[in-house]
Design goal:
Elements: H1 3-6, H2 16-27, E1 38-41, H3 44-53, E2 62-67, H4 71-79, E3 84-88, H5 96-105, E4 108-113, H6 127-139, E5 143-147, E6 171-176, E7 188-191, H7 197-208, H8 213-224, H9 227-257, E8 261-262, E9 275-280, H10 286-294, E10 316-320, H11 329-346
Parallel strand pairs: 2-3, 2-4, 4-5, 5-6
Antiparallel strand pairs: 1-7, 6-7, 8-9, 9-10
Length: 347
């Protein structure tokens, strides 16, 4: 099907027929972009690398990133010595006054954020927070880089991305296909504001000429055949069941814990995603709980790598049941609760 495209270099933007397909698909997420603003990228990580390296019209050079945040991007920023400012985000959201002070006093190039189903917190911004973020970005000449990597798993049909409140003036929208299809595909989409398109295109061309034409062709066939929509529905349904089971099990352990931990859904904000977090009381050690659970074949990853080296770390446990058999979720949460209470008794 693509013999005319595979044996020549493509364009930095991507396969034209795929771009047209993605444009229509993104409209379903309330992201209405023109074709000239849309780029196929080799995963969200590539888009972030380009945005970090390229100059912005403002001439500013500092990046604000949520803490905790996306660990691979944190590694990238620290490895390349990029000027970066950590900004605290909790289950309750963010301090907008503190963020405004950063925008006002620092040379902020862009704010990298995961408004929907944040990793590792599992929480989402409320509508009023999204509106305030966009207003602050416009007021202080700051761009917002929106990583909407789990857009396909959103359960609330009324929840829109940041981009919907901006219209593409200040929000750079990034979407991954790794989570909904498979990571090896290495395909993502980036919607770039008009003012940044020429520079982004130039830097992308220098970096890789074009993203893999084989992967782009595979994604187009997958979408046109109807397999993408079918698979998305299947994954969304499966993850929703897992999230409800996780929510119910955590509610039970929350009642037994006697205040040893809190978590977002326990505060009345609705069922969590397939990933969420527990905030431990100050006397508990996440490292010891992780070590104790490992002996019982319950594996938790440390949250430390989700923080900049210089940023104070919170006593959090991150939970993920994406690959856990549904029938074992309750048992894993029960063992987690026992480990927390056991350590609590020793204090």
């Amino acid at each position: 099907m693509y013999k005319k495209d595979l044996f020549i270099y493509g364009t930095p933007q991507g396969l034209p027929s795929l771009l047209a397909l993605l444009q229509k698909q993104l409209a379903g997420y309330q992201v209405f972009a023109r074709l000239n603003q849309l780029f196929v990228v080799s995963g969200v990580q590539q888009a972030l690398s380009i945005l970090t390296a390229m100059p912005f019209p403002s001439g500013k050079n500092e990046i604000v990133i949520e803490q905790p945040g996306y660990h691979l991007y944190i590694e990238h920023l620290e490895a390349y010595g990029v000027p970066v400012v950590g900004f605290r985000r909790t289950a309750e959201g963010v301090d907008m006054n503190e963020l405004e002070e950063l925008f006002r006093t620092r040379r902020i190039k862009f704010f990298y954020t995961m408004p929907r189903l944040h990793n590792p917190l599992g929480t989402s911004y409320r509508t009023e927070e999204k509106r305030r973020l966009v207003a602050l970005a416009k007021k202080y000449d700051v761009y917002l880089v929106e990583d909407d990597y789990l857009a396909d798993l959103e359960q609330d049909a009324k929840s829109d991305p940041l981009y919907a409140y901006d219209g593409g003036e200040r929000v750079i929208y990034l979407k991954s296909y790794s989570k909904i299809i498979f990571p090896g595909l290495r395909i993502g989409a980036a919607v770039i504001p008009d003012a940044l398109v020429p520079t982004f295109s130039r830097y992308k061309r220098i970096l890789d000429i074009d993203s893999s034409m084989l992967s782009q062709g595979a994604l187009e066939i997958y979408c046109k055949s109807g397999m993408f929509d079918k698979h998305r529905h299947k994954i969304k349904t499966s993850y929703s069941r897992r999230a409800r089971r996780l929510h119910t099990a955590l509610e039970e352990e929350l009642r037994r814990s006697g205040g040893l931990f809190t978590y977002p859904a326990g505060a009345g904000s609705g069922p969590p995603s397939v990933h969420t977090h527990l905030a431990l009381s100050g006397k508990l050690s996440p490292g010891r709980i992780i070590a104790a659970l490992k002996k019982k074949s319950v594996f938790l990853d440390s949250v430390d790598r989700h923080y900049l080296a210089s940023f104070p770390k919170e006593p959090l446990l991150k939970l993920n049941v994406t690959n856990v058999p549904e029938s074992e979720i309750e048992q894993g949460v029960r063992l987690l609760g026992e480990a927390i209470r056991s350590q609590g008794r020793r204090k």
